[in-house]
Amino acid sequence: MRALLTLARGIDALNERVGRAVYWLVLIVALVSAGNAASRYGLGASSNAWLELQWYLFSAIFLLAAGYTLRHNGHVRIDVIYGRLPPRSRAMIDLFGTVLFLLPMAGLIMWLSWTGFAESYAIGEVSPDAGGLPRWPVRLLIPLGFGLLALQGVSELIKRIAFLAGQGPLAEEAAEEHV
């Protein structure tokens, strides 16, 4: 179990670093958006490449931060019942949800989206709009983002199993103990 918990900590650290890097993408997309608007309305000049860059950055923020969001328990869930359950029951729900829904869904999307990325890269797909950007980088974000989400799902699964086996508290309970 120690080796698995070490793996979980490594996955947590990876998604933490990626999530922190994504914070900077928010600033970059705000600057690109402001610059594009200033160029369009102030100078009467616009570029499809800048508009597409905004789209790519928004996609990167959403997709690359999914694992980080799961790590910090930030995904939407129905807390009406879940929040009132004891920690062991919540861990069981998380365990089954991860095994039955999260990991199969993330794996399927990674698998299906990889072909689209590979084809886009192979043919050098470019946006059909004048001055548009290559499409393969944004297509790569899909399997990469869902890969990070699946990895974090594995980490959460390991931590739930360890908790249920009495090998340590969940992050939420550990945080409450230190308050």
UniProtKB/TrEMBL annotation:
GO MF annotations in UniProt:
transmembrane transporter activity
Q: Does the keyword Thylakoid apply?
A: no
Please provide the record's keywords in A-Z order: Cell inner membrane, Cell membrane, Membrane, Transmembrane, Transmembrane helix, Transport
Family annotation (Pfam families):
DctQ
Q: Give the matching InterPro entries.
A: DctQ, TRAP_DctQ
Q: Which parts pass through the membrane? A: 21-41, 53-70, 91-116, 136-154
Describe its membrane topology.
Multi-pass membrane protein
Q: What does this protein do?
A: Part of the tripartite ATP-independent periplasmic (TRAP) transport system.
The UniProt entry's sequence similarity note says:
Belongs to the TRAP transporter small permease family.
User: Know the name of this protein?
Assistant: TRAP transporter small permease protein
**What is the species of this protein?**
Sulfuritortus calidifontis
